[in-house]
Specification:
8-stranded antiparallel β-barrel, 194 residues, alpha+beta, elongated
């Protein structure tokens, strides 16, 4: 019975010392969850792009992004976003490694995997019945594919938990020939660490 009491006291005192160490840290360095929104995609491309990240340790996070195109693609648009985003919907898993001694903030490198679906314009050659070339037609092909890629960026977190995450990523689709070969991820996330 005495040994159980002694072990309980030791564990309790250890828990108190850990809690005291964390009380000296700013709020942003204790919290482990982040929610964010990419306003660049909303304004420029009419797409909802939201994210969640979990701080794993001082130098790494694991996160998920959900991208959904809200507007129809139209050839009369002033800015053609099709060259940047052929995807209509995408789910991205990302792992970030941060450099420096700050807790999951500052400059980072990122590895990501993206499952996306959408439509891409492809060129096909049109021939007559004798096999003579007539013209090149452009058609839209639907695709679903998985891409692997990497990125770089910086995350800056204020004392009250608000954050800005600026980065750029590039990857390659792996399985579907109708999918765009290259995927890019321009990131400008505004969020909150809690």
């Amino acid at each position: 019975m005495k040994s159980i009491l002694i072990v309980s006291i030791i564990l309790c005192s250890f828990q108190c010392t850990v809690a005291q160490d964390q009380s000296d840290l700013p709020k942003r360095d204790i919290n482990k969850n982040e929610l964010s929104l990419n306003p660049l995609n909303i304004v420029a491309f009419g797409a909802l792009d939201i994210g969640y990240e979990r701080v794993l340790n001082n130098n790494s996070t694991l996160g998920f992004d959900f991208f959904y195109l809200l507007t129809d693609r139209d050839d009369d648009d002033i800015f053609d976003g099709d060259d940047i985003f052929e995807k209509d919907i995408a789910f991205t898993t990302k792992f970030k490694y941060f450099f420096g001694e700050r807790i999951a903030r500052g400059f980072y490198v990122e590895g990501f995997g993206m499952l996306s679906s959408g439509s891409d314009e492809i060129l096909i050659d049109v021939f007559d019945s004798q096999g003579n070339f007539i013209r090149v037609d452009e058609i839209e092909e639907d695709f679903t594919d998985f891409a692997l890629g990497f990125g770089v960026g910086g995350k800056f977190v204020a004392r009250n938990g608000f954050l800005i995450d600026i980065g750029f990523g590039i990857g390659r689709n792996l399985f579907n020939n109708d999918a765009p070969e290259i995927v890019i991820r321009p990131n400008l996330y505004l969020g909150y660490r809690f």
